[in-house]
Design brief:
alpha/beta, 3 domains, five-stranded antiparallel β-sheet, 429 residues, Rossmann fold
Length: 429
């Protein structure tokens, strides 16, 4: 088991961060966005990167979960700290009540919803550094041991995943606090953290203080060892279809338990940020074996004869076509790989047309019969698709990009399809 010394020299943080960035191939020509809350960890990370000579852009996400007075005071302090470092703070404002609506829709905690929206904002940038540290890593491993998570999940917080890097994973909270204090900076404090009753907060306040430094090293060592084991496992290749990710059903069922876990992690991480537990992995394997679907709060899985497909949770995103908008030709839903079009007769649309995701109550008239859209999608093994609806009824189902086939109602068919001009529309996710 690898062992890490807990250093006492605050300035040693800079050497470890520089070694991390060098090992990750990140040069000073790149701009690093820091997920900046203003707390001790993110303030330390931002300061270290500045002192090392990197181009840094601190980004603060306002979740609108606290009083305007507290937020204003925090932002003023955060801007002052950034100014002292020679930086300008970028503030991204979420809509009022957006976190609460997502938490209610997904039936999850406010903390989880805020985290998802925060990462959605950060995903706009090519290179983002978060301030997760040594103690966070030990807490994560402990939490996953307590909840009986899958073996590979004990790799904990990854040092790098895509464009997200975590340069402070080798640094303890005490080192980070000493570094910030050494620079004469004052971190901000989020009062909502004091009110959280989530599992992580219970582990942090009730369990971790009772553990010795040696035990903390061992917990972090578990993450290191599992990361090394994970690097030797070859997952089943997956295909990202933009709307969903597919994996060969035969190959998935034939691989080892560890490769199965890694394959699921690899596929799911492309479309959603979901904690994959051991019980969920067992359910996924059973569904893949029996050819059944699985609908969860954070993930939808369907199984065909040849594929296991992973979809995002159901969404209600839509766009409108009002009078005067250009819908004077055939409509095409393209995913970037296949440009097969569905041809429409726009003169047959009644009033305003809306393109949205399907609902269970949707019906469409095809070949003289009224058919439930959900029945069509069930045959295609699609949990949902895009539909075109005017003020009278659903006129078209666009399921090709979702793994099925496109269908048009009788009233939209035109004898002069090939003479119509193409109209392209990218999927709205």
């Amino acid at each position: 088991m690898s062992r890490r010394p807990i250093h006492s020299d605050p300035l040693a943080i800079e050497k470890r961060v520089e070694a991390f960035l060098s090992g990750a191939g990140i040069t000073r020509k790149e701009t690093i966005v820091t997920a900046f809350s203003g707390g001790c960890d993110s303030l330390c990370l931002t300061a270290v990167l500045v002192r090392l000579g990197f181009s840094v852009q601190p980004v603060y996400v306002n979740h609108r979960l606290r009083s305007e007075q507290e937020l204003s005071a925090e932002l003023a302090l955060n801007r002052a700290n950034c100014k002292a470092l020679g930086l300008t703070l970028t503030v991204s404002q979420l809509a009022e009540g957006e976190v609460e609506r997502l938490a209610e829709e997904k039936r999850t905690s406010i903390e989880a919803a805020a985290r998802e929206l925060r990462y959605k904002v950060l995903s706009r940038y090519p290179l983002v550094a978060t301030a997760h540290n040594f103690n966070d890593q030990a807490e994560t491993v402990m939490m996953r041991l307590i909840t009986g998570s899958s073996l590979l999940s004990l790799a904990g917080i990854r040092k790098q995943r895509g464009g997200i890097i975590r340069p402070l994973l080798e640094c303890t909270r005490s080192e980070i606090a000493a570094y910030v204090d050494c620079l004469g900076l004052t971190p901000s404090h989020d009062s909502t953290n004091d009110e959280l009753f989530c599992l992580r907060n219970k582990v942090r306040t009730l369990v971790m203080p009772k553990l010795s430094a040696e035990v903390l090293r061992m917990l972090a060592g578990i993450a290191d060892n599992m990361s090394e084991a994970e690097a030797r496992i070859r997952p089943v290749p997956s295909v990202n279809h933009a709307v969903y990710v597919s994996v060969s059903r035969e190959a998935l069922l034939a691989c080892s338990s560890q490769a199965f876990q890694m394959s699921v992690f690899s596929a799911v991480s492309q479309i959603a940020d979901v904690l994959i537990s051991s019980s969920l992995l067992e359910r996924i394997r059973k569904c893949a074996s029996e050819g059944k679907s699985l609908t969860g709060r954070d993930l939808i899985i369907t199984v065909t004869e040849t594929e296991v497909r992973f979809y995002r949770p159901y969404s209600f995103a839509c766009c409108q076509f009002e009078k005067g908008n250009r819908l004077t030709a055939r409509l095409m839903l393209a995913d970037g790989r296949d440009s097969q079009a569905v041809h429409l007769d726009p003169a047959s649309l009644s009033g305003r047309a809306v393109l949205r995701f399907s609902r269970s109550s949707d019906e469409i008239c095809i070949d003289g019969r009224t058919v439930r859209v959900s029945r069509l999608l069930s045959a295609f093994k699609c949990p949902y698709a895009a539909v075109l609806e005017d003020q009278q009824a659903v006129k078209a189902v666009f399921a090709r990009s979702f793994g099925g086939r496109n269908r048009v109602c009788d009233s939209l068919r035109s004898e002069a399809w090939q003479q119509l001009e193409a109209f392209e529309l990218e999927p709205v996710l």
